[in-house]
Amino acid sequence: MAKNRLTPKTRHLTHLVLGASIALGGGLAAAPSALADTPGQGHLNPAPAEVAQPVKANKTPLQIEAERLPKVTAAQVLDLAAKQVGISENAQGGGTKFQSWYVASPRAKETVARDGGSPRAYANAPWCAMFVSWVGEQAGIRPTMGWDAYTVSHAKWFKDNKHWGTTAKPGAVVYFDWNGGKSISGIDHVGFVKKDNGDGTISTIEGNTGNGKVEHRVRPKSQVVGYGYPVYAG
């Protein structure tokens, strides 16, 4: 099976553990105003605009942040992810547009400043988290999807922002531990939930599968550590 997460063996660029003060969307997890970030160029037709509602005290920082972003549904994000099915890495484990995008992104420079190494090293690094991050960028909702190349850091970001749970929902970001562990530190792989099949499995769309591609998969829920919940319209 292909490497599905960045591991300590490549620590100089891969041990990307975010502190609680760093948000993958571009600001501080604790302060809604600091979560503001410039979303990428959206490639989706957003859902119809809704009348702005007064901010409620019980909204999470990500829900507040979502109010300034395009209104994008889970179905639209899954459609965008599905359109990438079949994209494959090269013999060196690189060559995908997801890795190329990450190499050129500000996030690569931030993680290199934090952990050392070179942005170019991401060009051949395991890319399941880069795929999820790329989809969020293209959809224009990166501030509520997060972005990183390390699955553990990405999952911690959702948890720090109180968008973490154990229920499979369409469009949720799903994190796996192939050994069946339930600790975020043991996460091996990440993808998107298409649906809960109701039989102990979920259907997913994932990058950097064992075949080194973007693929549709069916996975047992026993391998799921948890789910991150981006903010969707509808």
UniProtKB/TrEMBL annotation:
Asked if Signal is a keyword of the record, the answer is: yes
What keywords are annotated for this sequence in UniProt? Signal
Keyword Signal on this protein?
Answer: yes
A Pfam short name: CHAP
This chain belongs to which protein, by name? Peptidase C51 domain-containing protein
InterPro entries linked to this entry: CHAP_dom
Please list the residue ranges annotated as the Peptidase C51 domain.
123-208
Source organism per entry reads Streptosporangium roseum (strain ATCC 12428 / DSM 43021 / JCM 3005 / KCTC 9067 / NCIMB 10171 / NRRL 2505 / NI 9100)
| First and last residue of the signal peptide | 1-36
